[in-house]
Specification:
Helix content: 25-40%
Strand content: 15-25%
Radius of gyration: 51 Å
Largest sheet: 7 strands, mixed
Distance between the termini: 126 Å
Structural class: alpha+beta
Number of helices: 47
Number of strands: 60
Shape: elongated
Length: about 1500
């Protein structure tokens, strides 16, 4: 009875091409939506924009504002988008509050994409939540006029007729497609998605004027379709292989997508029956499958088949076509239909007159079923009697042979027939016919010996799923082919997105799929639905408590086997949703059930549960997770809060504190220093500074670190010893730096210990300094003798070692001399000192020196037979062995006698009287004592006492003093080394001592024992040298005498300096220029040159109008300087040469070289307007930018989007552009309100600000009355809304500097070409501190400056000249005010920019003097020393201060230079006797 109520499937079929092709028109749903309530002006879809999702997805409807609507038929409100299922069930309502909507579309995951004319697009899910993205600055500036949205992206046409492509839906940066030149939007266009093109990239097909263009990301191609154009409609087949083109003359072309072949051409004017308004073009053209085209008119749809035949489908209202992979959905105001080509399997089974095996199988099954139903009682009897002749494999064919004969006839094709019936069941919509087809397949498989039942079972499962989702309340009319293309997983996602969790869960269980994603979505939806009602957007909230919600979710998960212990749903993901909904307590409860710390900790960090996150990370035992938490907290929290969090954690987070210290010690020592400081760990801070000092190469930094460590140790009472030792270390470091200067850097003293320092001083000949180190550090005599012994041994200074051993009695004895020399392999030199050792050890010592004879004599004299035996054993020479044996024999014979002797009388020494004074002395050849011998004989007789020398009678303790002269060049600090060599020599250095000794003639006739300097005042121009000489005056009589030589230093010029003093002796000049009205760039460049010592080879530096000139004696030095300039600033260099002279005989020439260096005329904080074409090439940045920094490239920043780009010098000079305004044009504004937008890029935070000019708040102090607020200075109501990059530092009430564009007049073509509506009123540049700047506060730091000469005629002698202003101030009173202003702006930039401070050297300033002293010093002009400055003289820059005192509040964030950023000025560390000396 039920079967008779269902029509045969073929009743909806219509044939084309003489029955070769069939198409079906199936009614799916009767729609119940109320179109008249949507504001479209009626119950027809013609007044709406309709967007349908593929695969039976939802439909979005919005009123079309371009259509005229009769007044009174609707109310005009903001656009509202209604979302329905295919059955007309309402799913969601979206209220649109932005600008005009350009396009609607759906993604593959059923997210609605809404794009407006400002280039912003949102992705809505079916619950109404959305994500927002933008197409970029170009779309925002020029607007979007049209767009096409497809499953995986969109393509938009901007106001400049360019094509922007978005790939994916994660906010990727739009790409640009290659578009033809268009004067207006295309007539019609479509997008071929990447999965339908051979290149796997999106391609655009557009009708422009009379032809067709195809565009991709590489090129655009004109397809030369001018013969039929223009084309009003374009449609692509679902597989992308064919295109349908409708011409203006109503001809429909079907061609291949590669435009190589025309498949069909059809004249729409021949349609039968003709459309109601044949003169109007069709509303829509869509493909039905891949071989038919649907043409929609206001109340009619025509189907154009493969052979050019048509079918006619009338409708009562305007239809809307939604293309599916295997057909087309037709939506009207009251119904939803599906048109498709009848599937091949279904056609082969059910087509009337079919002779396919599947048709025979179906007929046999139907016949068998009817006969079985009519003879049910007879069947029971037959079963009792046993199987009859009609049985086949257990199936009894009751009723005869028709079914049996049919099965036998198609036995070879039975397997194919069964598969066809299974497939046909999947293609059929009616459940009755699905069962019949499956029964036919079941009937046929009983006759097969081998049959795989899995396709049959899978089809049964699939049909149950499809029938469930096709139900009216679900409303997903999905075909079997669409289901296979979509996959079951995506179907479950679509069900959960519609909150059909129970159905999705049952489908997942039925198909044996994991329900994790369903449970996650269900839990999130439950959290959203149960939040407390009454809040914003909380309509319908049940207000269920957090405890009950958490308990319900946990119980459900455990019941479904997706608890925390499984690999199922993560509680952390659900907790994150709860936290985002504002339910922190619920999120905490859910997180307690999360067992995976890697999932739990990141959410705790996001919830600002920092303490719990750190504890969970430590409890997990995962060091990487602990590091992740620590680094996240360090980046987000203030340093004090970060350290306090670790301290408050106690023992539980102690491992985290240790890991933090390990990380900071290797990666971030600054953080470790702050950690120790916050924890008051002074000893650890001191140890860290000492460790850093040992690794620093810069002596100044090492000295500062050591002093800072000493301060930390001194603050701890129990660490007095360490403080003293560190203080001694700093003192030693300063001394070592002085010693390195004394030896001209030839020996490295830095970092050595006291002992090593003494040794190196001795090796370098700095004996006085070694003695001073010994005294200052209280080195004992024993240790000093050991050090000097080792030093002289390493230097192989045997004479000095011998003299040192005779200086006085050795406190360590002489055995160490012998053993040390022997250990170093100097046995022959060690023999000299054996005689001074203990007699009992001499034999052994002689043996160690290899002196076997002497050792044998010592052993023999002491009667040491064992020693003699050892000497015989070790001796390699047989002759010496015989000598030792003879001594051994004598020893044996005399041993007993010697042993019995009790007293050995001492050897008598014969003495005589001195011939002059009668003093008893040992006899010598002169019979004179030493004093008388010195008075009789003058050993300095060979040293000349005339000419350069004269005898000066003085009270020198060494007797006579001789005076000589030395020539010294003050320009290059070199001494004349005879005969004509000029050598750099430091005071009291070995080189200077060698020069002094060369001046003395006759030293070759005596033996020079010792020579050294005697200290003299540095300014005395005297050098005193003490000499010790020896000379043999009589036979075997040597006299030693000490005398002093005094040298007078005479100033002169060396030949090189003489040439440099003359004019035009330079060989190369670098002319550095920058065409800007200020010199802040040169001020910064000067500091970079000073830091890197790049000016060391300059002959002179001259200041000119627009820059500086550097002169060099060699062209190679100039090339090094140009390379340095190119590495720090963007420049353009041009090199030229001029012939000065030429020698034709030697073929040599003398040239002068000129390097013209042009710096880019753009400075920091300048407002730059880039031409539009060039802005597109620079990462498509906005034309209106500010210069954020100038390095070797120009860094430009768009303050409205935070987009940045770098312009290299090559790119800039290829197409130069100039500043629109500079810092002198900045206007002061007051921040009234500021609201960060959330976008952060580096140190910049995007924010919307409301500002007003500072002049609006000024008062007329002269009249005592309030000024007119409507005057030209501005008014309080004059406020501006702008977008700025300073959202991270600005607060309401702050003062900020910016460019007031509406009040400015710019004469620049690039600026005039911009759209005035897109030019902001104000562009904010930097924060200002007016109150703090007005205070008369001395800066605690200073700069250094290069010594420069002024340009000729610049008035350098003018008393008003601005000395001490770096690269400025050398042009006298011509520009004094500008000099002061530029220099003050430069100093303020240094204070406000940490990156700029890190690139230069800042020095500690002098203590502040009284104002009167400062004014007097300023009025006195430059000092004599400053005027004299030599070639490498450095001028100390005193920072300027504002002299006016005003009342004002303190700015809390005023930039201040920290003391640890300043360097000590060692040039000012000299000791002065009195103040101002």
């Amino acid at each position: 009875m039920a079967d008779s109520l269902v029509d045969h499937p073929t009743t909806s079929w219509e044939a084309l091409n003489n029955g070769a092709v069939f198409y079906s028109r199936r009614h799916l749903y009767q729609l119940q939506w109320n179109l008249s309530s949507m504001g479209g002006g009626g119950s027809d879809l013609s007044g709406y924009i309709v967007a349908g999702a593929r695969f039976g997805g939802p439909v979005a409807i919005m009123r079309d504002n371009t259509k005229l609507i009769a007044l009174g038929r609707t109310t005009f409100t903001k656009p509202v988008i209604q979302v329905f299922s295919s059955s007309g069930i309402h799913l969601a309502t979206i209220n649109w509050e932005l600008s005009k909507i350009v396009s609607l579309g759906w993604t593959a995951s059923e997210q609605l994409v809404v794009l407006n004319e400002d280039g912003q697009y949102r992705l809505y899910d079916l619950q109404g939540t959305y994500r927002s993205f933008s197409l970029g600055s170009e779309a925002a500036e020029t607007g979007v006029i049209d767009a096409r949205i497809f499953d995986s992206g969109l393509v938009a046409i901007t106001g400049q007729m360019s094509l922007l492509e978005v790939r994916g839906w994660e906010g990727q940066k739009p790409g640009t497609l290659h578009a033809p030149v268009m004067t207006g939007p295309p007539i019609s266009w479509i997008v071929l998605p990447p999965d339908q093109t051979s290149s796997r990239h999106a391609e655009v097909v557009m009708a422009v004027e009379g032809t067709i263009y195809t565009c991709d990301n590489l090129e655009h191609i004109d397809q030369q379709m001018t013969s039929g154009g223009p084309f009003t409609h374009i449609a692509a087949s679902p597989n992308g292989r064919s295109l349908a083109l409708l011409t203006a003359s109503s001809n429909l072309w079907v061609i291949t997508s590669d435009f190589q072949r025309k498949i069909l051409e059809f004249d729409l004017s021949t349609l039968s029956p003709s459309p109601p308004s044949s003169s109007t073009p069709p509303n829509q053209i869509a493909w039905c499958g891949s071989d038919a085209v649907l043409i929609a008119y206001p109340a009619t749809v025509y189907l154009l088949g493969p052979g050019g035949e048509t079918l006619f489908y009338p409708y009562g209202s305007t239809p809307v076509l939604v293309t599916e992979p295997d057909g087309t959905r037709v939506l009207t105001a009251i119904e939803c239909e599906f048109v498709q080509r009848v599937p091949e399997s279904l056609e082969s089974v059910l087509r009337p007159g079919s002779i396919a095996p599947a048709a025979f199988l179906f007929d046999a099954s139907e016949s068998f079923a009817k006969r079985e139903a009519s003879s049910s009682s007879a069947a029971n009897n037959n079963n009792a009697a046993g199987p009859g002749p009609g049985a086949r494999d257990g199936v009894v064919l009751r009723g005869g042979g028709r079914a049996d004969e049919s099965i036998r006839a198609m036995k070879p094709d039975l397997a194919f027939a069964v598969d066809a019936c299974i497939d046909a069941a999947g293609r059929e919509w009616e459940v009755v016919w699905q069962k019949k087809l499956l029964n036919a397949a079941k009937f046929g498989r009983a006759f097969l010996d081998l049959f795989d039942p899995r396709p049959f079972v899978a089809m049964g499962q699939t049909l149950k799923v499809l029938n469930a989702i096709r139900y009216y309340e679900i409303g997903i009319p999905m075909t079997y082919q669409q289901y296979t293309l979509l996959s079951p997983g995506q179907l479950l996602s679509r069900l959960t997105s519609r909150s059909l969790h129970l159905l999705a869960l049952r489908v997942a269980n039925f198909l044996s799929l994991k329900p994790d994603s369903i449970l996650k979505h269900w839990a999130c939806a439950k959290i959203a639905q149960t939040r407390p009602s009454g809040g914003l957007g909380s309509a319908g909230g049940s207000g269920e408590s957090d405890e009950s919600v958490a308990r319900g979710i946990i119980e459900k998960f455990e019941a479904m086997g997706a608890g925390a212990g499984s690999a199922g749903v993560s509680y952390a993901e659900i907790a994150k949703k709860a936290w985002e909904s504002g339910r922190t307590g619920l999120a905490t409860m859910l997180l307690d059930h999360e067992t995976r710390a890697a999932e739990q900790v990141p959410l705790l960090l996001g919830m600002r549960e920092d303490g719990r996150a750190l504890e969970k990370a430590v409890d997990s035992g995962d060091t990487d997770l602990v590091y992740q938490v620590l680094l996240n907290l360090h980046k987000r929290l203030p340093l004090g809060d970060f350290f306090k969090l670790i301290e408050d954690g106690g023992p539980r987070v102690a491992p985290a504190a240790k890991l933090l210290q390990l990380y900071a010690r290797d990666q971030n020592r600054e953080m470790l220093r702050d950690f120790y400081y916050s924890d008051d760990r002074r000893v650890d801070s001191g140890l860290l500074l000492m460790e850093e000092a040992s690794m620093q190469e810069d002596i100044t930094a090492r000295f500062n670190s050591t002093k800072a460590a000493q301060k930390f140790f001194s603050e701890d009472r129990e660490r007095g010893f360490e403080a003293k030792m560190v203080e001694e270390s700093a003192k030693l470091l300063a001394l070592q730096q002085t010693l390195e200067k004394d030896v001209d850097g030839k020996s490295a003293f830095i970092g050595l210990s006291v002992s090593d320092t003494i040794m190196l001083c001795i090796q370098c000949g700095l004996n006085k300094r070694a003695e001073r180190v010994r005294a200052d550090w209280r080195v004992s005599d024993r240790q000093f003798w050991w050090l000097k012994l080792r030093a002289l041994t390493e230097a192989k200074a045997w004479d000095e070692l011998d003299a040192f051993s005779k200086y006085k009695k050795s406190p360590i004895g002489y055995e160490p001399f012998v053993r040390h020399l022997v250990g170093k392999g100097y046995g022959k030199q060690a023999v000299v000192y054996v005689a001074k050792c203990d007699p009992a050890k001499r034999g052994e010592l002689y043996l160690s020196c290899g002196e076997y004879r002497a050792a044998a004599k010592e052993f023999s004299e002491r009667g040491d037979r064992a020693g003699l035996s050892e000497a015989i054993r070790l001796c390699p020479d047989n002759l010496i062995k015989r000598f030792i044996l003879s001594l051994n024999f004598r020893e044996n014979t005399a041993f007993e006698t010697i042993k019995e002797m009790e007293f050995v009388p001492p050897t008598l020494v014969h003495r005589v009287l001195c011939a002059d004074c009668g003093t008893p002395i040992e006899p010598n050849s002169a019979n004179l004592c030493i004093p008388c011998l010195r008075n009789t004989v003058d050993v300095t007789e060979g040293i000349p006492k005339s000419g350069l020398f004269e005898i000066v009678f003085s009270y020198s303790p060494f007797g006579l003093r001789f005076v000589a002269s030395l020539s010294f060049c003050r320009n290059c600090d070199r001494f004349l080394s005879p005969p004509a060599t000029w050598t750099i020599a430091q005071p009291e250095s070995r080189e200077l001592l060698a020069i002094c000794l060369k001046k003395l003639k006759g030293l070759n006739k005596v033996r020079l024992v010792d020579a050294g300097f005697i200290w003299t005042e540095p300014h005395s121009k005297r050098l005193r040298v003490k000499l010790t000489i020896q000379k043999e005056v009589f036979t075997s009589t040597i006299v030693e005498q000490v005398f002093e030589v005094e040298y007078v230093v005479q100033h002169g010029q060396c030949p090189d300096c003489t040439r440099l003093a003359a004019k035009n002796t330079w060989q190369a000049v670098i002319q550095v220029r920058q065409k800007v009205p200020h010199k802040r760039t040169f001020l910064f460049l000067e500091q970079l040159i000073l830091k890197h010592n790049a000016h060391k080879d300059t002959v002179s530096i001259k200041e000119v109008k627009d820059g500086l000139d550097f002169y060099y004696a060699h062209e190679s030095h100039a090339q090094k300087m140009t390379e340095f300039l190119a590495s720090v600033v963007p420049v353009q260099t041009i090199r030229s040469s001029q012939l000065i002279s030429r020698d034709t005989h030697s073929n040599t020439a003398n040239y002068k070289f000129t390097h013209s260096v042009q710096i880019v005329p753009i400075c920091k904080d300048d407002l730059v307007c880039i031409p539009l074409k060039q802005a597109r090439s620079l990462s498509n940045i906005s034309p209106l930018t500010i210069c954020s920094r100038v390095g070797n490239t120009v860094h430009l920043l768009d303050p409205s989007t935070l987009q940045e780009t770098d312009v290299t010098s090559q790119v800039y000079w290829r197409e130069p552009f100039f500043s629109l305004a500079s810092v002198t044009d900045l206007v002061e504004f007051i921040v009234l309100d500021i609201e960060p937008s959330g976008t952060v890029r580096g140190k910049h935070v995007l924010a919307d600000a409301e500002v007003a000019p500072s002049s609006s708040f000024a008062s007329n102090s002269t009249s005592g009355m309030e000024m007119d607020m409507d005057s030209h200075h501005g008014s309080v109501s004059t406020t501006f809304h702008t977008r700025t990059h300073l959202g991270g530092i600005l607060q309401p009430g702050d003062t900020v500097m910016g460019y007031w564009l509406t009040r400015s007049n710019f004469n620049l073509p690039a600026f005039e070409s911009l759209d005035p509506s897109r030019i902001p009123d104000v562009i904010l540049v930097k924060k200002s501190y007016p109150n703090q700047r007005k205070k008369n506060k001395q800066r605690n730091w200073k700069l250094k400056s290069m010594a420069k000469e002024a340009e000729e005629g610049a008035g350098i002698n003018d008393s008003s000249s601005g000395y001490g202003r770096g690269a400025l101030g050398r042009r006298g009173g011509l520009d004094q005010k500008r000099v002061e202003k530029d220099y003050e702006l430069f100093l303020q930039s240094i204070e406000e920019d940490t990156e700029m401070r890190a690139a230069i050297n800042l020095y500690k300033g002098k203590p502040v003097r009284a104002d009167t002293e400062m004014k007097a010093a300023k009025a006195a002009g430059p000092s004599k020393q400053e005027r004299r400055g030599g070639q490498y003289a450095m001028e100390i820059e005193e920072t300027s201060q504002v002299e006016s005192e005003t009342e004002g509040g303190e700015e809390a964030d005023f930039p201040d230079v920290k003391l640890d950023e300043l360097l000590d000025d060692f040039e000012e560390m000299g000791i002065q006797d009195e103040e101002g000396a």
